[in-house]
Amino acid sequence: MKLSPRALSLCQGCPVIIIAGTIDFQDKDTRDFAVEQSLPLQESTRTEEPGCDAYYFGPDPGRDDRIQIFELWADEGSLEDHFKHPNYQAMLGLIGKLGMVATETAKYRCDLSEPIYDETFTPRADFFTDAGNQ
């Protein structure tokens, strides 16, 4: 199996900021409505904001009242700009208006990333590329 250019480009050892977390709502209907209403904001964040490589607020398949959050940012400057952007303010407003009951969100700065699978499509827990062995 050959790795995609996208997978390889994310795995070159350059710093990246990952945001991961959850938002809980009162029930499934409210959660589903929040996901639906946030789709335009998710799309505009991905397409309009430099440094945003992923921006996902989607339903948690294990909890019907929860949204899972996953974001990838190129650097602190991009993330700082996002926090000042109208998309961010609109998302905060939407989530607040719909009655979020709990949230846990954290940011992680990663200095090394590699693909999970090697060139033989074997999953690897170790860091096996030249960048990971320096």
Protein model, in words:
- This protein has a four-stranded antiparallel sheet.
- The mean pLDDT is 89.
- A hairpin with a 6-residue loop joins strand 2 and strand 3.
- 35% of the residues lie in helices and 25% in strands.
- The relative contact order is 0.25.
- Helix 2 runs antiparallel to helix 4.
- It has 134 residues and is α+β, with helices and mostly antiparallel strands.
- The radius of gyration is 17 Å and the shape is globular.
- It has a single domain (14-113), classed as Alpha-Beta Plaits.
- The chain has helices spanning 5-9, 28-48, 76-84, 86-97, and strands at residues 16-24, 52-59, 66-73, 102-110.
Quick synopsis:
With 134 residues, the chain is of the alpha+beta class.
What's the SSE blueprint?
Blueprint: H1 5-9, E1 16-24, H2 28-48, E2 52-59, E3 66-73, H3 76-84, H4 86-97, E4 102-110
Antiparallel strand pairs: 1-3, 1-4, 2-3
Helix pairs in contact: 2-4
